[in-house]
Batch of 4 targets.
Target 1
Amino acid sequence: MKPGIEFTWRRSFFEETLWPVLANRVKNFERAKVSSGWAGIYSHNTIDQNAIIGQHPNMSGYYLACGFSGHGMQQAPAVGKGLSELIMYEKYKTIDLHPLRIERFAEKDLVIEEAIV
């Protein structure tokens, strides 16, 4: 395999890998017609595929909100609210984002999401 990023969309990957998962979850996908595709960079946390949110353990005053994959726009309002509380009150008040802390990797306390394809 040559180094770099492959930007070629392969219908076979979609049909053999993604399509069965989608069709199993949403029956209407079985009838959908795919006319084309797109390939590009999908930036995400490769360990448990969830965001990394909270204060950096070794850098005082440095906060993280990254690794969202395609969920960033959906989760941005809640993450903004949670981080603002963490910064102002040194704790989460409205929504507990503690499970998404960076330390979870070293602690082997991953957040496994079964719905990610």
Target 2
Amino acid sequence: MRVYLARWVCESVESNVAHLIELSAFAAGAGAELVVFPESFLHGYTRSVEPRRVRALFAEISARHAAPAFVFGSFSEGGANRMTVWQEGRQLAAYDKVHLFAPNGEHDLWQPGNRYVAVKVLGRTLGLLNCNDLRFPEQARALRLRARCDLFVVVGWWPWRRDHVWQTLLQARAIENGVWVVGCCVAASEFAGERFAGAGNYVFDPHGEPVRTSDDVLYELDFGGVLPLLVDPVADAREIGEVIVFE
């Protein structure tokens, strides 16, 4: 699978819309099968855009470039930080961020979601996670054990000063679940009043080995070329419902 991860600089809404159209065309022309944009990439934290306009834009782009599946990061809709997946002009899945990030005041902006979401597309099962969700291994574990995901797509608005945490958690979710993990983070925000330096984009295979790329945006995922796992995180999983504390 060829995956495109946008290196996104968030600016004004109008410039972001133009940039989205441009990069989507580039990714599709480069043969990407999965195209991913980061969290809140159209409006950041401080701007707003009409959800109907966003949906029309996503539908138009995914219809124009019918082959790839698009993960259009997230946008604000219905009081939620909503991640969506599109292909051929229609939405395949929507996921509302469950684990809101309190230090950024996200509880004042959105309501948390109440379900985890996976989607079957491109012959794979993709588990959807949004930024701070990555800190909660039970979410990734549920997606792996219950939905049998073989690829996690994680979008983020994660700061560069904590890039090591972002990278480590992406790698950990890959290792502990034996899945591919792609992480697409906003590179920067250059909007006045919302200056931000974002973390990097990363891809890890089911062993936690990083996938290298020559251009920093296109990654090749060789699902058939991975060595067998030493420990099968699905077959060897055990459900334990009791915890005992001895005093």
Target 3
Amino acid sequence: MTENTQPAVLTMSIAALRILHTEKGTAPEFTAGHSLGEYSALVASGAIAFSDAVKIVRLRGKFMQEAVPVGEGAMAAVLGMEREQLETLCEEISSGEVLTPANFNCPGQIVIAGHAKAVARAIERIKQEGKKAVLLPVSAPFHSPLMRPAGERLEKVLEEISLRDLKVPVMTNVEAELNTLKERVKGLLVAQVSSPVRWEESMRKMIEKGIEQVLEIGPGKVLSGLMKRIDGRIETKNLEDLQTLKEIL
């Protein structure tokens, strides 16, 4: 269940971050996180207390799961299509249902989300056009307009949370811009639930700011792989276990 997975991933990521800080004293110039990862980025920036973040992401997962009955929504990864081409395709075959890009991950990799039947039609059309589309094993159509009810519920939870000044700028999913204002955090997190994750734009913006090395903290190497496709000149490392910690130290 996503309501259990989200706090587990957050906890693992922050634990790894704290060990790195203790052992090496590493401090980032900027932080960023993909979807759920934006909460880890906000904790790392000092904006949200870890205990509050765990509470928020558990409820976020619950709200997102309950926004659409299981089986009625879906997501698919599309490979080899340009953004404009895919946006046009989604519009053409939506037939009144929700079908929209949800994650702009890297060149040639965009995730779409929406009603399950619309996503199925999109997969069929994409394959007919000689491109690849893969249905993702997820429990809801994240980052699509179908998640707006979840955002409304999340907003009420966020009203109860106190934020602190950001010590480090955070690259936002919704705008692909650096945010330094705590007053904007809650609104951006509410919008994030039902808006596309503009990851490729976010990484390019950080590169423009002079970033030469990125460190992915948390389970897996997915974001490191995306960065290599966005700009292979950027040094990438990941921290997820004792072995990767030794490599960094």
Target 4
Amino acid sequence: MKAVCLVSGGMDSAVALAEARAAGFRTFALTFDYGQRHRLELDAAARVASALGAAEHRVVKVDLSAIGGSALTDAIDVPKDRPIESMSAGIPATYVPARNTVFLAVALGWAEVVGARDLYLGVNAVDYSGYPDCRPEFLEAFERLARVATVAGTERGERFAIHAPLLEMSKADIVRRGMELGVDFGLTHTCYDPREAIACGRCDACRLRLRGFEEAGLRDPLRYAAP
């Protein structure tokens, strides 16, 4: 069995890749260089893919900074020090328009090429930052799209499955599950606004990650600028 796995370099996608491996899939890791300001995640993705035994790892360049509209791809400040409870109250400035739609479309194409019918990604609908493309409705809609947008689906009646094993998990549960699966979180990168390879500790991504480790009773192996 083969699966194409979106690997950003962050902790969630690392655990999702480990879940695919644990399910018996031969994994094909796919990373995007999309003009993100936190480009350190590209190196982290390579480390994670190698450590978790991906059969192949490809980096595809899709420059979403050309359209901007996000604090991750444009000259917009990354939100800092937001209360965790407020993070799902609206769509934050770190939302990248259509990012997961674009990423899954490319992943679907590679899946057809390598003969995979399963796609894995690390989206989460519990401890998430309000992103519309991290919700179950989006994933279900993309599965329906895959059936009518591919040769495998239209001519052979084959179905593609979108796996989001972390969808209903808390960050603490993700940390615990990652430890069970042998994920080295020290290889990952999460921060939206790092400085010289040091995580800021103040952006939404850092705060959610730190809370997850704290609630799991474990110490995050990453370095942080803020205490």
